[in-house]
Design brief:
53 residues, two-stranded parallel sheet, 2 helices
Length: 53
C-alpha cells in the first residue's frame, strides 16, 4: 500500500452514510454504526409540539 500508512486504516463511522460509502470506495476497512442521540424532552416541549401538530 502506497502512502503514509504501513497498513490500511480501520475506521468506525458514526453518522453520515455518505462518508462511509466514500471510505469503502477507497478500499478502507470501515464499519458503519447506526446511532442516534437519545431524545430528551420536557413537558414544555411536548406541549409546544402538541400545539404545533
Amino acid at each position: 500500500m502506497d502512502g503514509i500508512y504501513e497498513e490500511k486504516p480501520s475506521i468506525a463511522n458514526i453518522g453520515i452514510r455518505f462518508f462511509y460509502d466514500a471510505l469503502v470506495t477507497q478500499d478502507c476497512e470501515c464499519t458503519q454504526i447506526e446511532w442516534m442521540p437519545p431524545i430528551v424532552t420536557s413537558t414544555e416541549i411536548e406541549e409546544l409540539l402538541d400545539d404545533l401538530l
